[in-house]
Amino acid sequence: MKLSIKNFGPITSGFVEEEFMEIADFTMIIGPQGSGKSTIAKVLSTMMWIEKALVRDDFTEKELKLPGRFRARFDYHNIKSYFSDDSTMEYIGSMYHITYGGESKLHVERVTSSERTSIPKIMYVPSERNFISVLPKPSLISELPESFASFLDEYDQARKDLKGDLELPIDDVFFSYDRLNDISWVKRHNNRTRLSQAASGFQSLIPLFLVSTNLAKQFTSKKESLEKDITASIVANGGLSNEDLTRIRNEIQELLAKKPNDTRLINMVNSLLASRIPSYFINIVEEPEQNLFPDTQIRMLFSLLSYRNLNEKNKLIVTTHSPYLLNAVSLAVASKNVYGKQNLSLNSRRELESIVPKEAAIASEQLRIYKTDDKGKISLLENIDGIPSDENYLNDILGNFNDDFGRILEMGDE
Fold this sequence. Notes:
alpha/beta; 2 domains; 13 helices; five-stranded antiparallel β-sheet; globular; 19% strand
């Protein structure tokens, strides 16, 4: 998967080092506020959704090329106004190659001839997620983007799917949902507090963690073959709306009516289901560190990485300006190398597990870290032997802080 953006909102020259940004299994975007981190994530989310919609025949290539149709898709994230006369973007996915150079310069090309093409569940976790915990009916806020409403739906579904207590990536803290009274609870040390009255860190973390956990369970690589039980596969998939289910049932019935008792029918049905039922999970998260203590930030990231690793096709895209998360990525990459050693002692393995869970380790070739600046430029963060370089603007800020502190102490000694 590749992406190019130029002259769109805060992004001007875009990624200048190469023609395209490569979207890896785990892609992190760092940069100061207003520099375009979330813009990249939102454009990527929109392009992936357009590709998915084309595969599902939600609309045709011809319909997408109608005046205003392509730009209208960016209303979902409230970024349609970012378009200018010289905006360009290009996306190369597993199924479609989409190039935009203006209203009359939209090119859409299918890049695979395979009829059986799998589609992802795309989840965009917005930075406004803490509103869910505080406001009684956040969906009524008219200025929030549609992506927030979609996340709210997933959050409500995840609460309903929850059985018992959910352990959070914080020591001895659990989340539970009283379905009868529609109350979310945070439990700690035999005490419980309504989520709406809990600390801001819980209000930000719980919606993200709950939704990610619920969706990750649905898209593991161990998912049963669709051939075994088509109906069960449809019903069990919580990522489908009633409209999706109805459409699938109708199309299957049409196939069955045309070729009853045909042994080849199962292949036709599987092709249909592959383009209708998501088989992997793309998690796009804005600022997972929001309102969290550094140690919790790191645990949260390791949880998200472990969910990515449940299915080889899953992807995790994160925007951040937290130096703790960036350094945690270095730990995850370094641990992957150590876990692969055959002669690793049991004591060393246990100690390593206490630092980075094996499930969260990730290889350097699965990682890309991009940085944005206030001039609209995107660049690739350098690495040393596959591990992110310490020389980056987040660590530079910490270094400047230490330098300033030392200077102040020197002034005091004068």
